[in-house]
Amino acid sequence: MKDTIELYWRCDTVLSPLTACSSTMAAMRPEYEAGAGPGGTVTCPKGPQARVYPTAHHANWPETQQNLADTQSCVQAEKAPTEGGHHKNKISANPQREADRGWRNLATPLQTVGPTVHRKKMSATGEASCSFRSPESVEMDEIMAAMVLTSLSCSPVVQSPPLTDPGPAGSSSSADMECGGGELSDSGSSGYWSWDHGNASPTPSPFVAEVDSSPDEGLHMDLEQGEELNAKKPKSSFRCVYKCLWPSCGKVLTSSVGMKRHIRVLHLGSGSDQSQREEDFYYTKISCEGVDASSAPAPTQQALGQASSSHLSWASCASPPAAELQIPPAPRPRSNSSSGPGPSRPSPLSQSAPSSFWQIHSEHLYQACGPVQAPVAPSSPGCQGWTPTAPVSGNSNTPMVKPRCRSVSVGEQWLQQNRLQPMSASPSRSHCSFRKGRGEAKKCRKVYGVERKDQWCTACRWKKACQRFPD
DNA sequence: GATGCCGGGTA
DNA sequence: TACCCGGCATC
């Protein structure tokens, strides 16, 4: 019987990273001591089998699982009061475990992982084993089993983003990830999850999306999510596809959240705080199409079959559709070398730098185009070449999209210059002759003459590059 | 010299 | 930010 106590203490040591476990252990010791006889022995109704629990990390693991399965049928029934009582009340009673405080946040989220294990174990054994035990033993076993299960479920892999590719949309793992695998809340609040213990399918609460949302996105979502979730079904929504821009990846997902996770997990590696905010630069929203909500999959199908699609509506609708593609807030060059997007593929990244670049009214377009058009002028050999098309029209009243617009946009240039060769771009550019030769295109001066200078475009009047008749 | 427009100054 | 102009390059 002393072995039992000792083993429980060992358990406390082995599972020390898990504060919930250790704290609960602390809560248990008095119970054992209370149950001990005059000689200090502990009454262990279950017998030697009970000693197995603390040694869950040892060689007799199959047996342990079996025993755990025995107890889980009881634990699951009384899980809530067990957790609520011991965890919160006894944590402070173990000061030496305060160093493990960092793990404490795991306690609540990890409890959500438990039921998955419970279901697996329960089906094999049944509840008969706990029927003949005394209530004290049952309670004890419940606590122990809960802790062991928790410890088994709370490996750092669970805490950190999964190291494996979530796989094609539709895998259950991606659905689990979507429910918070990589971004468990530090708040420890269990409100994000509402496990229906009687239901086989986990049903994340509506706040799950808030967990996954990036900080800036979450600002909008906090306000809109509630009504959006209610109104999501009847309304038609925009369905967007996000494509990974990482070199030789090209993975396509249907939600920005899933894509962010994909990038963070696969490409950015560890889920550091910095990397968690850089996923935006590596994916693009490649298409948006109106989708009737009735054709969208059911919520459960969304959770299981379509990775991250449960957030599709807010991910795509939080921003204005189509016209306002996702734009990284403040592009930060990464020292980590990575090739930019394909040169010819239109992408939000390519439109990011001058977001409304192409919509600037022609009368002031030179102010936006000026610095851009110079490096790509035909007469500048060192610059990235692109041949501007011939002027589409000389109509000064409809200068919507200027022919100098090109497939490779400024944003992509920016990306290439800041990522591929952040330093080497400047010399060639600096030596570029920004002043191009006179083209054949008539300028306002030629067309209208000096005597009709008032009809010149503003740029010509200001001796700027003519934007009415660009080369 | 005429033209185009960059870079900088000013209000 | 809008406006203006000196000055340079090109034709």
Structural write-up:
By secondary structure, the protein is mainly α. The protein folds into 3 domains: 2-159, no CATH class; 172-192 and 212-317, no CATH class; 352-438, no CATH class. Helix content is 43%, strand content 4%. The protein contains 19 helices and 3 strands. The chain has helices at 2-14, 19-35, 61-77, 79-90, 101-125, 135-153, 156-159, 172-181, 208-212, 215-231, 256-267, 273-276, 299-305, 312-317, 365-373, 410-420, 425-431, 444-448, 458-461, and strands at residues 237-244, 252-253, 283-291. Strands 2-1-3 form a 3-stranded antiparallel sheet. A hairpin with a 7-residue loop joins β1 (237-244) and β2. 37% of the residues are buried. The model is unreliable at 1-133, 154-238 and 288-434 (pLDDT under 50). It binds a DNA duplex (11 and 11 nucleotides) through residues 364, 366-367, 370, 374, 433-439, 443, 445-446, 458-466.
**What quaternary form is this?**
single chain
Task: Give the DSSP E fraction (strand runs of 2 or more residues).
Answer: under 5%
Order of strands across the main sheet: 2-1-3
Estimate the mean pLDDT confidence: 44
Radius of gyration: 31 Å
Gross geometry: elongated
Q: How many H/I helices?
A: 19
